[in-house]
Amino acid sequence: MFRHILYYVTSVFLLLHPYVCYSTDYKPDKETEKRIEALLGKMTLEEKIGQMNQLHCENFPYLKTETRKGRVGSVMSITDPNIFNEVQRIAVEDSRLGIPLINARDVIHGFKTIFPIPLGQAASFNPEIAETGARIAATEASAAGIRWTFAPMIDITHDPRWGRIAEGFGEDPLLVSQMGVAAIKGFQGSSLNHPTSIAACAKHFAGYGASEGGRDYNSTYITERQFRNLYLRPFEAAVNAGAATLMTAFNDNDGIPSSANPFLLKDVLRNEWNYRGTVVSDWASVSEMIRHGFCEDEKEAALKATNAGTDIEMVSETYIKYLPQLIKEGKVSMETIDNAVRNILRLKFRLGLFEHPYIADQRKETFYRPDFLEAAQTAAEQSAVLLKNERGTLPIQSNIKTILVTGPLADAPHEQLGTWVFDGDASYSQTPLQALRRISGDSIKVLYAPGLNYSRDTATSQFNKVVELAREADLILAFVGEEAILSGEAHCLANLNLQGAQSRLLHRLSETGKPLVTVVMAGRPLTIGREVNISDTLLYAFHPGTMGGPALANLLFGKVVPSGKLPVTFPKETGQIPIYYNHTSTGRPASGSEKNIFTIPVGAEQTSLGNTSFYLDAGKDPLFPFGYGLSYTTFAYSNLQLSSTQYTRNEVIIITFDLTNTGRTDGTEIAQLYFRDLAASVTRPVKELAAFERIHLKAGETRHIRMELPVKQLSFWNYAMDYCVEPGKFDLWIGGNSREGLKATFNITQ
After folding, report:
1. pLDDT of the residue at 601
2. Are the beta carbons of 517 and 539 closer than 8 angstroms?
């Protein structure tokens, strides 16, 4: 009892200084492994399997009973420290061996202080944003007793119909890897056993973002080479960064559900990558293998998932029911069980739970701290992407005396938080309307009429009032998009147009002739070509979180200059999906000069259209390419130089160029380096992101920039399934997006 009291006192001090960490992190050393083996030797079979059993807190009496018997290893979603301490006391003091529980929860882009959705954070091209956000989330969540989060999601996807695109970092493996690694560092801190650190969980392993048709839980058909060259890259980076846990995916790939896929869980994860962390299933994904048609019953599901290497089963309890019998029958070995339990106990030692099992409850002052809110605002400012700005409409000029604020997202505190927000309080959200009124003061009159009550609203009864107010205004600010509930898990869409009557509202506003600034808050790319055309300016804010209002107000008034770039390709039409920048060429790539459905002559012959790979009605290009984003200033790239034109596999390519801010406003450019392997043993993408850098320049300033690209970074899994750099000719580009840039050429020799 004394050590528990001492821990409470220590925790209170530490939590007033949440960035102070213990001097050393847990490392699997011989002494700790001896402790694991000693404990393992004392455990009964039931207690071992109990460690592999994760329960939800919804049936609290059952949870307490099972914990007392040693039949629970971790619990989900207890957010009251006192309640968690109650069940933890049962685990530590009433169960036979006193093994502590881990308390887990989905803390995705904030616990109380909500940052932009991960897709928005990725638009910053700034891993520090992800790390800071995760560190703050960990500090707040651990104050409520959470020591394990099911984040970050590092699934790559090419399909914005998939609702969970909001939860990830986009389509590029390098960007996803760097943002994911940063989030892991933020969650776990410099020491997992610090009370403000929580275990990260890289998910979903693997290929979930390729779900067929963009429908959640759906099947995928990914080849081994595709896995290795694309979908597995962020997970390998996460493993190398020390991710404490991984989560299996819901999808089956080529008929094998991820929770029972030995290729992924054994061959790659354990044997190739030497991963010593813990693998947990997704919610009931073990028992759902019955509905996949992969297992006849729960017993077979437990058999296949355990033998494949899934250590912990989330909520469906097939392990606790059937593993004892499967072991008796010799279908599951004790070695398999022991290895799973070792991984789980190792996690608990890393978290320091054996020494400090309880949570201090004197930490509510941790939530919504001013420095946390400031960091969330910075993240929202850097996450917004300026997609159009004609006639210098933004930033708002001094001649603007009256502004109309309209749209269903202008004053929607809950909706701006975005998906996967279980614990954030919308009453803390600062909305655009509130912030614009505050920043305008007495110098600018702010009129407000929402026009629509929510994004799906089809009623147009308020439109006449909005148009009447627009005639009084010098500038219209329309906040549109999608409600938080329309993106995230199980929130997939077949149509990516603006919902409800939002487009009709924008059309009516455009007819007034007043400058129209459209701000979109959404969890995914939307097909907004029509809205772009009728708007003078369009700013894409994703779902910006708690401080979205002040961030957007600063951007609109030019106190902050937009710097975000798109982390995912924006399609013109849903029929173009999947559409992504790093595709292969095909043998007949489109040139852009093909005739389209509007220019085809009547009676044209079948072979007169170019015979290339494009859509007659949508062409070959997206609405906006990956990496695209404007500023209130302009940037010019020049003087691209390579250190050589010939390199061997062990050398480093030195790239230099000049970047000039050619405008009158200070600003930040995200310089992006791309390459292409022109001829290889298997076809390679037309472009691949190799590096990026945020560069701040004063108006008129020129800076000489140097980047390094190790030749080994050009490696890929080739025809022989060797990971290597093949000799040959390469193109390289430096520019502001994936479509434009200066070009150079080099060769890799044997």
Report:
1. 85
2. yes
pLDDT above 50 for 507: yes
The one-letter amino acid code at 397 reads Q
547 close to 373: Cβ distance less than 8 angstroms: yes
Paired with 202 in beta bridges are: 246
The phi, psi pair for 391, rounded to 5°, reads: 60, 20
Give dist(CA 260, CA 281) in Å, integer: 10
Check residues 354 and 364 and name the one with the higher pLDDT: 354
Determine the angle formed by the axes of helices 173-188 and 127-143, rounding to 10 degrees. Answer: 30
SS3 651: coil
| Separation CA 155–CA 704 (nearest Å) | 35
Q: Residue 29 CA to chain centroid, in angstroms?
A: 33
Characterize the bridge pairing of strands 516-521 and 475-481: parallel
Q: Show the tokens assigned to 619.
A: 């062409």
Q: Residues 6 or more apart from 608 whose CB is under 8 A from it?
A: 595, 600, 601
Using alpha carbons, select from 104, 95, 106, 102 the residue that is nearest to residue 64: 95
Select from 392, 276, 267 the least CA-distant residue to 339: 276
| Residue whose C-alpha is closest to residue 526's, from 543, 514, 509 | 543
Vertex 325: Cα angle to 321 and 328 (nearest 5)? 155
List, by residue number, the catalytic residues: 282
Distance CA 708, CA 725 (A): 17
Q: How many CA atoms lie within 13 A of 308 on its CB side?
A: 25
Which two tokens mark 501? 């009557």
d(CA 131, CA 151) in angstroms, rounded, equals 12
DSSP state of 571: P
Are 294 and 260 within 8 A, CB to CB?
yes
What integer best gives the mean pLDDT of the chain?
94
Residue 256 has pLDDT above 70, yes or no: yes
Q: Name the band, by pLDDT with cuts 50, 70 and 90, for residue 608.
A: low
In a 10 Å sphere around its CB, with 0-12 CB exposed, 13-18 middle and 19+ buried, how is residue 643 labelled? middle
Q: Cα angle vertex 167, ends 164, 173, to 5°? A: 95
- Stretch among 466-470, 605-609, 739-743 having the lowest mean pLDDT: 605-609
pLDDT of 15-25, one tens digit each?
333 333 333 34
Instruction: Tell me how crowded residue 547 is: count the other CB atoms within 10 A of its CB.
Output: 27
pTM assigned to the model: 0.95
**CA distances from residue 369 to 112, 115, 365, 424 in whole angstroms, order as listed:** 10, 13, 7, 13
